[in-house]
Amino acid sequence: MGGLSCRKLRGKDRSAMTRARRLARLAEATDRLVGWYRLPKPLGLAVLIGLRQRLRADNLFDTGRGAADRPPTTLAGRTDFKTARTLDGTHNDLRDPLMGSIGSRFGRNVAPELTHPEPTERFWEPNPRLVSRELLTREEFQPATTLNLLAAAWIQFEVHDWLSHDTTNSRPFEVPLEPDDPWPRKDRPMKIRRTAPDPSPDGSGPPTFVTADTHWWDASQIYGNTTQFADGLRAHSQGRLGLDQHGLHPVELERFLAPLGNKNNFWVGLAMLHALFLREHNAICERLASAYPAMTDQQLYDTARLINVALMAKVHTLEWTPAIIAHPTSQAALHANWFGLLGERFDEAHGRVFADEVLQGIPGSPTDFHGVPYSLTEEFVAVYRLHPLIPDDYEFRSARDNSLLKTCRLPDLTYQHVRERLDEFSMPDLFYSFGTANPGAVTLHNFPKYLQYFDRRPRDTPIDLAAADILRTRERGVPRYNAFRRALRLKPAATFDELTDNPHWAEQLRQVYQDIERVDLMIGLYAEPKPPGFGFSDTAFRIFILMASRRLESDRFFTRDFRPQIYTDVGMTWIRQNSLRTMLLRHMPELEPSLRGVSNPFAPWPVAGPAPLVARPAPAVSAPPGDAPSPYLRYSDRLEQPAPGEDLDIARIIEKLTRANERVYRRYGHALRDAHAKSHAILRGRLTIEGDLPVELKQGLFADAATYEVIARLSSTAGVLRSDQVRGVHGLAIKVLGVTGERCLADDDADTQDFLLVTHKEFPFKDVKDYLEKGMPLAGLLVRLSDRQLAFVIWVLRLAEPLLAFLGRRLPLPMQVFIAPNDNMLGMDFFSAAPIRWGDYVAKFKVVPGSANLKPFAGQPLSRTAGPEAYREMMVDFFSTEAAEYHLCAQLCTDLASMPIEDATVEWPETQSPYVRVATLTYPQQNPYTDARRYFGDEVLAFNSWRGLSAHRPLGPINRMKLRVYDASSQFRHRKNRARSLEPTHGDLPD
């Protein structure tokens, strides 16, 4: 049953294998100790590669092949299988033609002895219907805010290609129903069909099951796996497919589809993707026929299918998966799966130089089964049960102006209504509606309510699909959650509280299961905490690490036959140059405004407005009559588009931050700022507004020439007090005094305007969700690292930077902050990083050295012998004898495509809108760091970018987060330190 082949190894091979196993074990130990997602990306990537090696060695099991485990003989007979995929999946492996074909068995990722279904008395404990009702019922839709609804449709589209079990009418399961169960009386008992048994079981050992489709990634969901459907779909001219007016297969062909198979689960979301890839096939045929006029209809069809399938695999690997597991390390691993660690640019410049998949990716590498015949596995089936992604309610809107066209429920979109909806809505409107809507989060209490009463009549009786998912996993012998984790060498949950970080869920799990060892796999996967950026669990990710690569590396057409001789030069270019975005725009150019600025089509698209957000003529009070319209974007409250769930994410950040602040308080016996904890100078000065500004810049505080007193605080590090020799984030907080006018916040009666700046142009995290999932874990790690440990990490990152640059890549933004030169702070530029309102416009701003006596400090490295308080000492030394002048400059926004508000990681191009000096900051000679000043600046003062004029309202997700986070942090600090917060009215500082 193990199926692992043995061969005599040469000494060099044996030594290499021993080293690989040791490294794999080291990676697994590191993951258990730290967690791969908590490591810097280069180290995390190395750990993931090691984990994959260990999983390949220990978690691939062959279940064998019975005499009848093969496709129907009527599908055999083709002789051109060396250059084309077959309908029944045979001859992908030329030495074992039946491998992966229709009728072949599902393999295993856990040892076969662990896959015996439980005895009847334990099989039903607890009742799957009880589990569904108590733990999965959706009371309120929980959105996955980093994804759009196309992501939900996509994975079902792919699963319909990969996975298919037949069912049988014989002895259906009868699900026990409690007296108070709301299941309709007319539909009792609830009957769920059993999985069809293997036609030639082994007779001993656990049961095996066979696939009703091929195991290969071959787009059989659109091309079919019967000659009747496949031939009926073809136009038999230039390789093209004969499609209906919607781009779908003709409806009459559905008589050739199994009534209880994928046809039964067809809905509008699937229809959209079917139509897209069927149209793509015809577009590929047109290009091939133009380039190779001698190709026959059959050759064009076969080659176009190969290209279309490869493009589908590329979209899944490089677009869908990075969207649903959006951790920087896992995203890099996925990119490496396709292009290798050397990257896409190396491949484009040099072609295939190395056979190794790690260096240059799986496509084009040698085929490798790792000693076990290829098949998908029952465990792979189990972890891809992602029905919570599907919403119950849908809004269909116009791609032109976002106007509401119609609302529908899920049953209105299912099989029997698909073509009604396609007659009702255009394809661009459908894709726009899905692109701007969120799917559900894969979590407890979020199963679609319409699927808990899945009415499939007249083809079958209604079922609770949630209960069926649990029942199927038990029926096929997939271990329960803790046993599953043990089989993958992961630590099992000792208690319900350890399984989940949600105390309410822990109690519910305890009530339903009573014994932690009885928790079903699917329930455990939904309940466990997810890695930052992940849409599904880390436990499921282990199977993904293994099988995502295996789907590619075991397929001849993705490996040794992924070459121009099979695909043609045109085909290889088509795959290289295309993506889901280019496909959408090729077939629906009307979507171009919606996709503008969207880096991943599976992430939420911007909502179309009733009119483009472009510059409008300034009102008469701001612009003299007859002047040309301003080229700058005018402010509107429609510019901000908070993501669904943002308030909840901010609340979670505050909760985590409060716990972190408590730890720091216990460590120091004193509360620190969670950001910029260490001050270097508390400066008094004045801000002089320029008098001859352009009309667009004469806004808010800067409307008229004036001079204001200011108090400024220069600082660095986050959460802990570090030596200045360790590079961190540097900050400048400016409080302008005597500022009157309408305030941002209704309860703010201060006469001050706060401006907060840092030394990086863009914020390292895109939005609130990104900060919660990536920034908070990073902050937690930084607090735990000693200065020496952090210095070592920075040293490693600096070593990695030139290598990544050679490969055409960059370190993630959060890492770039730490490898920036540790220079003299007097010569540094400071940036707002996120935009603010600038009266009638939108802007970012910066503060840069202005006076001649500051110029020598620009780029001047901090001396390694200067000590841990180098910044404070240089400030005291300088200002004891010198004054300084800095320039405050503003950069106006021209458009949201290149200068977005909702993505804080994008640097606004200065070539499009240069910074313009709007004011001068002057600091006179002074002592900037007396004990009294330090206490006043660190304990009494609080800076918040929301404390100021409404004309300078902070914009974007990071600023919306700061509104509540800074206030919570300030209150914590002042409460713990028993220091009263004071908003100053004059610039005299205590000395």
Radius of gyration: 31 Å
Main beta sheet strand tally, sense and closure = 9 strands, antiparallel
- What overall form do the CA principal axes indicate? globular
Which stretches are low in confidence, meaning pLDDT under 50 for 5 or more residues running? 1-10, 610-628
Helix percent reads 25-40%
Approximate strand percentage? 5-15%
CATH architecture of the largest domain: Orthogonal Bundle
Keywords: Dioxygenase, Fatty acid biosynthesis, Fatty acid metabolism, Heme, Iron, Lipid biosynthesis, Lipid metabolism, Metal-binding, Oxidoreductase, Oxylipin biosynthesis, Peroxidase, Plant defense
Protein name: Peroxidase
GO molecular function: heme binding; metal ion binding; oxidoreductase activity, acting on single donors with incorporation of molecular oxygen, incorporation of two atoms of oxygen; peroxidase activity
Cofactor: Ca(2+)
What does this structure look like?
The chain has 991 residues and is α+β, with helices and mostly antiparallel strands. The chain folds into 2 domains: 11-576, Orthogonal Bundle (Myeloperoxidase, subunit C), CATH 1.10.640.10; 649-977, Catalase core domain (Catalase HpII,  Chain A, domain 1). The chain is built from 33 helices and 13 strands. The protein is globular and about 95 Å long. The N and C termini lie far apart (81 Å). Residues 1-10 and 610-628 have low confidence and may be disordered. GO terms for molecular function: heme binding; metal ion binding; oxidoreductase activity, acting on single donors with incorporation of molecular oxygen, incorporation of two atoms of oxygen; peroxidase activity. Pfam families: An_peroxidase. Residues 168-208, 618-640 are annotated as: Disordered.
